[in-house]
Amino acid sequence: MGNISYTAHVSNKKSAITSKSKLAAVAKHNLRKYKSSDYSKDNICIIYGTSNLIDDVKTVYHKEFDEALEECNKKQIRPDRKIEDYFEHVAGKEQDMAVEIIIQIGDREFWRQFDDMKSYMKLSYQIILDELRKRLPQFVVANAVVHLDEDSPHMHIVGVPVADGYKKGLSKQVSKRKVFTKDVLSRVLQDELREVANKEVDDWFGEQIKEKSKGRNHDLSVAEYKVAQETRNLTQLQEQVEESDRAVKANRAVEKEYTDKKEKLETDISYLESMRRITKSLSEMDSRESKHISKELDEKRSELQSVNQELASAIEKAEDAAKLLDRIKSFVSSFRLFAPTIEEYANQVEADKTIEAGNSFRGILNELGKLLEAFKELIKEGLCCFPRLMRWKTSRGEVAPVFIEKSDGYSYSLYGYMNVDTKEYYSKESVQWEITAGNRTGTVEQMDANVEAMARDLQEILRIGAEEIVGGVWRKVEKGLHLVKLKSNVSLLTKTELAFDNAT
Question: Is pLDDT above 50 for 484?
């Protein structure tokens, strides 16, 4: 076998699609339902389904389960036991309502050599998708998207695992456990689809896929995969910050230019001072000309003062920019890798659930508990909030949840909400209906876009602003100064010639 990587990632644990909010988050990422310069809708290709992933999943539910649902409801005597909508029913049970598979061929290093051939992979992924549907029909595909705007071309597949033969409830039900067995994970995803991928790689590149790692019937989970992706994004953001650092250094060079031109202006003023003393020594020079030169000299002094003020402002801006960039670095480094845990926190807030942060009996905090402990802000005894982790946009403004802290930080019960600007409290009942995934602010995607925009805009402001200030002010001062010199020289030459003629 060869050296090209092949991986198949199946949603599991924290990345499992167990609610409508998590399904919405998957749709947001897969179909680029957010603004970011890192990604482009032009470089994603929908090869199955539509641009509305949630509707695609609902369509599968209706197609696969409506008949079984109708038969089940006919058997129910009590109206309260009838199920109106199976999609909504499963979404409220905290089970896998859908499953995401990510298939990736080749790593970053491989695709650096073949960047111009990335677009061809959508044809290969279409073939792999068709083979998956043939070999695993129990996994009913709802939507499939190929991403070409990241390090390696890869495919996101979202579908519904359908199992039948049930005696209780619906005869057909959603079941990840029955469909994605160890045999399916090993045989279909890792062996059979690997062979399909190998043929595609051989046809396009004349290369071979790596052998499957021994002792594994699956690769990374989707959560692990996404953490790895975000780690690479973090590296890119840090590179952007380094570029902004270089912009600050360039701004310091501009400061030197200010200083040099300031010194030149001071020299020219000294020249004017000397010129005035010479002028006064010439008896032939009338008082009007002297006053005129004195006036222009005062104007140059005023302009020098203005340059000094703008120089001080430029230095202050450069220092502020350097401090801001340090804060950006610290923020990105400390916050970015916790994205899956923050997502878990937000999902539990939106579901109005008690957050179990650890085991108080054993004195152990879980990963979410450690994160909450680090970002906890006490309001008063027994009440706290975490506005730096996630906030929600509501009709009452931007709010953060307020929790009753239980068992010394091992569990948190949702109490109400607080406006992050005015600190006004709202009852849980008055706001909770607006606490949804679509109203989140301060998400990972927004943070990516904001950090990048800050670094880029700061660099551009420093460059353009400095150029305009230095160039504009200096051109204005220099032009006026040259005019004074010219007029003074002409005047002195004329007066000197007259004095010489009178003497002779």
Answer: no
